[in-house]
Amino acid sequence: MDTQRVLRLARECGFELAGVARAEPLAEFAFYRTWVAAGMAGEMRYLADHRASLRADPRALLPQARSVICVGKVYHTSAPGTHGTADGGRGWISRYAWGEDYHVIVRAGLRRLLEKLREAIRADFVARVLVDAAPLLERALARRAGLGWIGRNTCLINQRTGSWVFLGELLVSLELEPGQPAPDRCGSCMRCVEACPTGALVPTGLPDDPAWTLDARRCISYLTIELRGTIPEELRSQMGRHVFGCDICQEVCPWNRKAPVTAEAGFQPREYAPGLAELASLDRGQFARRFARSPVRRAGYEGLMRNVAVAMGNSARPDWREPLERLASTASPIVAEHARWALARLPERAG
Ligand code: SF4
Ligand code: SF4
Q1: Which pLDDT score, from 0 to 100, does residue 351 have?
Q2: Per-residue CA distances from 167 to 16, 80, 256, 329 (Å)
């Protein structure tokens, strides 16, 4: 089967972007190892433990793999980013988490693609569907497959769709013609680096490939989603009202100005700038039910309550005293400590 036909099938399965990379050792792994060794993965042990070396070569996940079909699915909608909401009572949620869990939607699309490939190809072949969770340098592969370049904000950017795109892969034992990497179109722009509130985008000291990287330990996405423990105090006041993730370095990117929007029903905004008081009042059961099909559940109940406390501290409204006092008296020492930090920032109530 020729590559163009594979790409047509991918589009029929709902992927705006598709391309092919060879399943072979990745030179990009050398920098990944340096990044992990520098501690920039923070406490994300799954990036640094024995699984790290699997990223050196996609064949670690499927020894017979010859090609990687990389796909991209747009999740952008017409709603503006939540961190622009003027209402100080609302929390900010990363765009990718407004709708349903993308893993389910992207995996279903890749399974459809695999079925179509099996129908179209008479010979036997082995395949593996991957969405995000497997140890794979997926942005490096997507770049090699021609889906876009890796911007200074470390996101994969496509000239046509921007960076509001979920990635997925299909490892196959088929020999397919690989694509050509797209040229880097960041030019002299530094908007993302300048806009990052915590200074998480840092120079690598290398001339390029990559000249900039993400120090996850300072990134609000990491702090609000992946970090299980205490958020460093010096970063809390720079986190605004982010309660799950951060999109600032993508919102400011000129390549996202005219990003197309998705028609996918599952990606339409559901959890859009929820009220902080309402979030603070959730018990464990309500949290589990409300976010059962949402990426937000990854933060965990205590993680979300900790983030809500920091967001309340940063918006510092006097009426946050009561919900924060409740959070300060919960059994979780982490939630309680962040709530005390937030309480100390509230203005005294008049009278
Ligand atoms: S997601 Fe937010 S905190 Fe992280 S690098 Fe981008 S702007 Fe900075
Ligand atoms: S904001 Fe500018 S430098 Fe950053 S990723 Fe976009 S184009 Fe590249």
Answers
A1: 39
A2: 11, 22, 17, 41
